[in-house]
Write a structure and sequence with these properties.
This protein is mainly alpha-helical. The chain is built from ten helices and three strands; from the N terminus they run E-E-E-H-H-H-H-H-H-H-H-H-H.
Amino acid sequence: MKIQKIQLNKKARVIIDGREYNFQVENFKAFNWQEGQDLEKEELDACLKKEEIFLIRLHLIKALKRRDLSSFEAYDLLKARFGEEELINLVIEEFQKKNLINDQNYLEEYLFKGLTKFRGLKRLRYELENKGFSMETIETLIDQDHKIYEHEQALKFTHKLLAQGFNHQKILNRLSYAGYDEDLIEEILSKVAILY
């Protein structure tokens, strides 16, 4: 294989045996290629792999700037854009080692934010399971503090709904839709019935 042409602009455009390849300029400079140089296929493949890993990292960094991702979400996001499962898994593992993707922190934050937004643990379990987490992992994370906070938030949500003029049946429907379990809803509504 022979490098026929090299053009450096925003990207490095390289023609090898009549076929065009594009690389990030920073990556390309590290290859030390020159026009007219002979290349082995293995060398080209290794350079293409480095370029793909770079692009996967870049895409994941941009996504993580917007919000935290679980490893499952990161995989789905990258799989939709890049086809190389092996390279995707390699990059995700690298980000996990650097603690840029941390499923434990993601779960904790997701539960806290969900409870704060008046969503019950039942609904949050369902949402997290749909995001790829096993029910066993979710259950080991949910502790008594989460249940106490869920209770407080359900009571707060009920008071908010009462202040907006909702009747008993509509409150029951809203709490149920928000993912609070039946026993908690019953307990909250019986407490509220005494107050109002």
